[in-house]
UniProtKB/TrEMBL annotation:
InterPro entries according to UniProt: Leu-rich_rpt, LRR_dom_sf, RanGap
Domain of life: Eukaryota
Coiled coil segments of this chain: none
Name of the featured protein: Nucleotide-binding oligomerization domain-containing protein 2
Organism for this UniProt entry: Hondaea fermentalgiana
């Protein structure tokens, strides 16, 4: 790829025909794109889902991000980057002030990589959206990060296993967080206890607009707690 000084988007969405999704670019292709990012000053969106970049490709992209001042969105969904790739990306966030959205779902990221991302989130001032797969322990680390983060607007934790413990930790952070607008907790093994904790947070939170609890097990008790919270909350627009 030759350096282009005007291109603003490479792949408008994961469903757009111009996306680089599922193109088998691998490590070599990711490295070539990374080299281009170092020189490019206009590209804002890069979708690379399902491309088998691996940890090596993610590392190349991370190194490029440290010197790139234009990219706002990087989606590496399902690229087998693992803990190694996630940790390198987390370290890069400390030196990048422009990235707003980082998509890392379905990447075999364990507690080590997810914890590194959580720690980076606590210090990063521009990241708006983080999509990742975690468990209860890392959900707690993310909750601590939320307590200190003033920029994150979207936290997508669809299809994890954070349970009541993770949901309660996130709820405690939500009570004092003023930036998060969307919290996606679909299919997370959350019961009445976690739902009640989230409900208590909603009574105090003034920024969250969308809360998704689809495919959990909150039961009548959890639903009642959420209903009572809605009487106090003035900002939530979507509850599903």
């Amino acid at each position: 790829m030759r350096w282009n000084a005007t291109l603003a988007h490479l792949g408008v969405s994961c469903y757009d025909e111009r996306s680089l999704e599922s193109n088998k670019i691998g490590v070599e292709g990711a490295t070539a794109l990374a080299n281009a990012l170092v020189k490019n000053e206009s590209l804002q969106t890069l979708y690379l889902e399902y491309n088998k970049t691996g940890a090596e490709g993610a590392t190349a992209l991370a190194n490029a991000l440290a010197n790139n001042g234009s990219l706002h969105t990087l989606d590496l969904y399902n690229n087998m980057i693992g803990d190694e790739g996630a940790t390198v990306l987390a370290n890069t966030l400390a030196n990048n002030a422009t990235l707003h959205t980082l998509g890392l779902g379905e990447n075999n990221i364990g507690d080590e990589g997810a914890t590194a991302l959580a720690n980076a989130l606590a210090k990063h001032e521009s990241l708006h959206s983080l999509k990742n797969k975690i468990g209860a322990e890392v959900a707690t680390a993310l909750a601590h990060a939320l307590a200190n983060n003033e920029s994150l607007q979207t936290l997508d934790l669809w299809d994890n296993n954070i349970g009541d413990e993770g949901a309660t930790a996130l709820a405690n952070a939500l009570a004092n967080n003023e930036s998060l607008q969307l919290l996606e907790l679909t299919d997370n093994n959350i019961g009445a206890e976690g739902a009640t904790a989230l409900a208590n947070a909603l009574a105090k939170n003034k920024s969250l607009q969308t809360l998704s609890l689809w495919d959990n097990d909150i039961g009548e008790k959890g639903a009642t707690a959420l209903a009572n919270a809605l009487a106090e909350n003035k900002t939530l627009q979507t509850l599903k």
